[in-house]
Amino acid sequence: MKHMLRIAFALVCLTLIGRSASAEDWPQWRGPAFNGSTTESGLPTAWSKTENVAWVTPLPGMSGATPIVFGDRVFVTSVDAQYNDLLAICLDRTDGKVLWKKKTGKDRSVARNNMASPSPVTDGKSVFFYYGTGGLIAFDYEGKKLWEREIEKDHGPFSIMFGYSSSPLLFRGKLYIPVIQNKSANAYRQTGWKQPLDSYLLAIDPQTGKDLWKQVRRTDAVGEAQEAYTTPIPYEGPGRRSILLTGADYFTVHDPDTGVETWRWGAWNPRKINHWRIVPSVVTAPGIALIGAPKHNTFFALRLDDPEAKDPVAWTLPRPTPDASTPLYYGGRFYILDDDARVMICVDAKTGEKKWQGSLGGDQVFRASPTGADGKIYCVNEGGRVVVLAAGDEFKILGEVTMGEGFVRSSIVAAYGKLFIRTARNLYCIGAGR
Question: H or E element: which one contains 22?
């Protein structure tokens, strides 16, 4: 009997070790691989607001910010709709209990948006909350404030029509902040700021909060096309690392240590259309950067490992570009969510061959970006309807779940065998057990 108990105990331990080894954190907006994917497994395809729910925690207001999961913590940016406060919130991953909540400033009114749109980011020791007001605050995991910055105060007010919404990037010991804005707009002049209002990429020391460098990002874009809501994405190719950023009619590649621009490309707006602001960020595959022209125009796949090639464009895909959703790279394929048309497109990342195209149905647009995990693709529309697709070379809908609680713009997170779904009212942890 004792021998059998020892065997049973060993099997339980092996199961727990295996689960721990396969569990993966989601430390920033597009996940551990910076492309919307994760190696998580055992994720559900069916649930409801009461079934297969580990926990649900009410949130004090809506936000497009994606939750961040690391270890036993969940971090989420929010507003308090009642008091107009901006908030930094930390939850226990196992039960959803609020461990701490900090007021971090006041919200500003922007059409269909608020200042809690950027997602937080963590290195597993500190967590960094950033807001559309330019407020940037570092906390330790117990909620102690480590340092605080006001980017607008130091570098000028943001001049972006629908409110600053880019998320920060934490990569190899540096915190990267993009500001791609409208130099010709009049809004910032109302603040009394008199200096030139350049667009730039800023690197900050996450230990101290001090600037490491600021790279001005020049452009000849006009009007609203000068503006972008994109997040920088890292790329590690043969013998080098880069930071990639798109917006203001150009895709730029930067040295992560100095900010120096090493390459730029821009061919999607030769007529200089003045309203072509861009929202989807660049997404990478090995050797490829996928750049979407604004407002449902052409996708361009650029050869990252040979930027000096006579023609850097590996392939193009006409007119599927989302208005807001950033594509997913998962399992050798790009999954492009044409958000207004409610259509998903699967493309071979190397060749650009379209594998399939399928309708996700419904009557609400998508604004959140798709998530890839466990051989599945998770999408959620603005009305809170989740569509689960099979990843691969065949279009197949595996499940549909109506969460409701509308105006959902936060991407779904997969971590520790669970899905984390943010609605306008609640944060749900989906998946049996803990």
Answer: helix 2-22
CA distance 370 to 287: 22
> What would the mean pLDDT of 135-157 be, rounded to a whole number?
97
Residue indicated by tokens 């798109």: 246
Q: Name the 3-class secondary structure at 9.
A: helix
Q: How far is CA 128 from the centre of its chain?
A: 14
HSE (side-chain half, CA atoms, 13 Å) at 199: 30
Q: ∠ CA(334), CA(124), CA(424), 5° rounding?
A: 60
Q: How far is Cα 334 from Cα 319, in angstroms, rounded to an integer?
A: 15
**Closest residue by Cα to residue 132 from 295, 111, 100, 426:** 111
Query: Which two tokens mark 312?
Result: 């850097």
Please answer whether residues 424 and 405 qualify as being in contact, where contact means their C-beta atoms are separated by less than 8 angstroms.
Answer: yes
The token pair that represents 77 in the structure block:
């940016």
Structure tokens at 339: 């958000």
Cβ–Cβ contacts within 10 Å for residue 144, how many?
11
| Residue 26 per-residue DSSP state | B
Residue 9 has pLDDT above 60, yes or no: no
Angle at 65 between CA 390 and CA 133, to 5 degrees: 155
The two most distant CA atoms of the chain are separated, in Å, by 82
| pLDDT at residue 197, as a whole number | 86
**Torsion angle defined by CA atoms of residues 127, 284, 163 and 121, in that order, rounded to the nearest 10 degrees:** 0
- 264 within 8 A of 249, measured Cβ to Cβ: no
Torsion of CA 9, 10, 12, 17, to 10 degrees: 140
Is the CB of residue 128 less than 8 Å from the CB of residue 138? yes
Q: Determine the Cα–Cα distance for residues 143 and 314; give it in Å rounded to an integer.
A: 47
pLDDT of residue 111: 81
Question: What does the alpha-carbon distance between residue 154 and residue 117 come to, in Å, rounded to a whole number?
Answer: 21
Calculate mean pLDDT across residues 378-387. 97
- Name which of 128, 74, 70 is nearest 104 in CA terms: 128
CA–CA gap between residue 324 and residue 337 (Å, rounded): 9
Report the alpha-carbon distance of residue 317 to residue 307 in Å, rounded.
Answer: 20
DSSP code string of 270-303 = TT--TT--B-SPPEEETTEEEEE-TTT--EEEEE
Q: If you average pLDDT over every residue of the chain, what do you get? A: 92
